[in-house]
């Protein structure tokens, strides 16, 4: 068995990226020592070597992970030949405006310059309403940011730097929204193990701006904590975000826990993998539309 430091030396992949591949793509699931440290076997090291080779040859990490977890015969060459959807090249001379004239989050992330990052975010947030900014700029830019990380154009530190800036900006909008002292309470958050919270936080902010009494729980919330929050606040509804297949079992566990809460509450699921969770009502893809859907349902007494 190998430690993560040994695997990093054997594969040439940094420890942070190895953890990110495990968390995001589940290409390997290492065992744990008695002290909680990751331990990899020979087969897992081989998989990670193959992953590193594919990524080095230009295959996006997400596509490489699909190849390694797919059945034999997957067309690796075809995936490697696909153009990189991120048009931005990290040359060190980036501006904060993309080719289409919109604020460029990837360039700001690459710079690691707090002033430039805030300038980009501030410019974007003043172009339209918050809901329009989320749909037309923030979420698309977040996709580009992830793809830039997958292709090695930005580091984990640069990606987290930009994401943290976005979280601060959205937090300001959330805090500025009117606080509802009455009305149905809605819990919003992510299940245990899910940590990418920008999209669900944008949803919570849109919902709060409509006047709903939102209690934002955040990321990585265990099932019993959801249940306890529902009891304490006598919540009318709960919204669980699920954006990856490995989050589905935990989201299902939350939905199952909340099904027996008294007084009863309605459970809603949002995100790209929402259809895999049963016993809950599905929200639309659009964050703003999803917020309006739930708000109307609460107002009508249907939630």
UniProtKB/TrEMBL annotation:
Segments forming domain HTH merR-type: 1-70
**Any idea which UniProt keywords this protein has?**
DNA-binding, Transcription, Transcription regulation
Where does the record place the B12-binding domain?
183-303
SUPFAM superfamilies reported in the protein's UniProt record: Cobalamin (vitamin B12)-binding domain, Putative DNA-binding domain
Its domain of life?
Bacteria
Q: InterPro entries attached here? A: Cbl-bd_cap, Cobalamin-bd, Cobalamin-bd_sf, DNA-bd_dom_put_sf, MerR-type_HTH_dom, MerR_fam, Meth_synthase_dom
Select a single GO molecular function from the record's annotations and give it: metal ion binding
SMART domains noted in UniProt = HTH_MERR (SM00422)
Query: Which Pfam families does the protein's record reference?
Result: B12-binding, B12-binding_2, MerR_1
User: CDD domains from the entry?
Assistant: HTH_MlrA-CarA (cd01104)
Query: By its UniProt entry, which PANTHER family does this protein fall under?
Result: HTH-TYPE TRANSCRIPTIONAL REGULATOR MLRA-RELATED, REDOX-CYCLING DRUG-SENSING TRANSCRIPTIONAL ACTIVATOR SOXR
Descriptive protein name: Putative MerR family transcriptional regulator
Organism in which the protein naturally occurs = Microlunatus phosphovorus (strain ATCC 700054 / DSM 10555 / JCM 9379 / NBRC 101784 / NCIMB 13414 / VKM Ac-1990 / NM-1)
């Amino acid at each position: 068995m190998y430690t993560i430091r040994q695997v990093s030396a054997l594969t040439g992949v940094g420890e942070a990226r190895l953890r990110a591949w495990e968390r995001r793509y589940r290409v390997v699931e290492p065992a744990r020592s008695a002290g909680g440290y990751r331990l990899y076997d020979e087969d897992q090291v081989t998989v990670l070597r193959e992953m590193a080779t594919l990524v080095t040859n230009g295959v996006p990490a997400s596509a490489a992970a699909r190849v390694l977890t797919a059945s034999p015969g997957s067309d690796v060459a075809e995936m490697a030949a696909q153009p990189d959807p991120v048009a931005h090249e990290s040359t060190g001379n980036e501006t904060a405006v993309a080719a289409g004239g919109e604020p460029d989050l990837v360039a700001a992330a690459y710079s690691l310059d707090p002033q430039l990052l805030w300038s980009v975010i501030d410019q974007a947030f003043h172009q339209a309403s918050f809901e329009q900014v989320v749909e037309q700029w923030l979420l698309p830019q977040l996709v580009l940011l992830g793809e830039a990380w997958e292709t090695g154009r930005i580091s984990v530190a640069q990606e987290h730097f930009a994401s943290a800036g976005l979280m601060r900006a959205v937090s300001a909008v959330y805090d500025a929204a009117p606080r509802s002292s009455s009305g149905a309470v809605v819990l919003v958050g992510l299940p245990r193990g899910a940590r990418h919270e920008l999209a669900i936080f944008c949803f919570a902010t849109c919902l709060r701006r409509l006047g709903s009494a939102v209690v934002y729980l955040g990321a990585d919330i265990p099932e019993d904590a959801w249940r306890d929050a529902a009891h304490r606040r006598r919540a009318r509804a709960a919204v669980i975000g699920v954006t990856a297949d490995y989050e589905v079992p935990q989201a299902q566990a939350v939905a199952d826990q909340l099904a027996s809460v008294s007084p009863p509450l309605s459970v809603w699921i949002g995100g790209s993998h929402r259809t895999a969770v049963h016993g809950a009502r599905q929200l639309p893809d659009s964050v703003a539309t999803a917020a309006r859907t739930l708000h109307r349902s609460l107002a009508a007494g249907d939630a």
